[in-house]
């Protein structure tokens, strides 16, 4: 079993730990940072930096993925009913560019572009660029 990553996270984040950081640390302790990084689609270095609260970028996207994978976070999707939060994030990323050849991508492009979650994150991204 890995070192006590909750203690490492608590030293960096303080007590009480945000629930998603605690879930991330516990998942890493059950398996490994490498295995967890594969599950959420980020590098082991990102996992390490998040646990040590030294991740240079905004952690909101990492939090969303951790909630989706380890905390059963769901999002109401206009194309489907409920989908895992990390799947919503992946579809939102794909919906930035229209790809006409794939029927599912086309359907999700239109669904995402009318979804309040997409509109909120797209608006926040534009504000961050300014």
Describe this structure as you would to a colleague.
The chain has 130 residues and is mainly alpha-helical. It is 64% helix and 5% strand. The longest helix is centred in the C-terminal third of the chain and has 14 residues, at 116-129. It starts with a helix and ends with a helix.
Q: Low-confidence stretches at least 5 residues in length (pLDDT < 50)?
A: none
Beta fraction? under 5%
Task: Tell me the strand order in the biggest sheet.
Answer: 1-2
Rounded to an integer in angstroms, the radius of gyration calculated over CA atoms is 16 Å
Question: N-to-C terminal Cα separation, in Å?
Answer: 45 Å
| Biggest sheet features | 2 strands, antiparallel
Which class do the helix and strand fractions yield?
mainly alpha
H/E order of the elements?
HHHHHEEHHH
Individual helix count: 8
**Quaternary organisation of the protein chains:** single chain
Q: Any idea how many domains?
A: 2
Shape: elongated
Instruction: Give the overall average pLDDT.
Output: 90
Q: How many strands in all?
A: 2
Helicity range = 55-70%
Annotate the secondary structure layout.
Layout: H1 5-13, H2 19-30, H3 33-40, H4 44-51, H5 60-70, E1 74-76, E2 82-84, H6 85-94, H7 103-113, H8 116-129
Antiparallel strand pairs: 1-2
Quick recap:
By secondary structure, the chain is mainly α. The chain has two domains: 5-70, no CATH class; 74-129, no CATH class.
Please tag this protein with its features.
2 strands; 2 domains; 5% strand; mainly alpha; single chain; 130 residues; two-stranded antiparallel sheet
């Amino acid at each position: 079993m890995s070192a006590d990553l909750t203690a490492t996270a608590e030293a960096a984040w303080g007590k009480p730990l945000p629930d998603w950081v605690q879930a991330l640390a516990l998942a890493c302790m059950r398996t490994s940072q490498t295995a967890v990084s594969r599950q959420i689609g980020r590098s082991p270095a990102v996992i390490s930096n998040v646990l040590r609260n030294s991740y240079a970028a905004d952690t909101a996207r990492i939090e969303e993925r951790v909630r989706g994978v380890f905390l059963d976070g769901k999002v109401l999707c206009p194309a489907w009913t409920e989908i895992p939060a990390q799947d919503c994030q992946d579809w939102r990323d794909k919906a930035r560019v229209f790809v006409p050849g794939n029927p599912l991508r086309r359907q999700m492009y239109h669904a995402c572009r009318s979804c309040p979650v997409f509109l909120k994150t797209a608006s926040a991204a534009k504000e961050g660029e300014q």
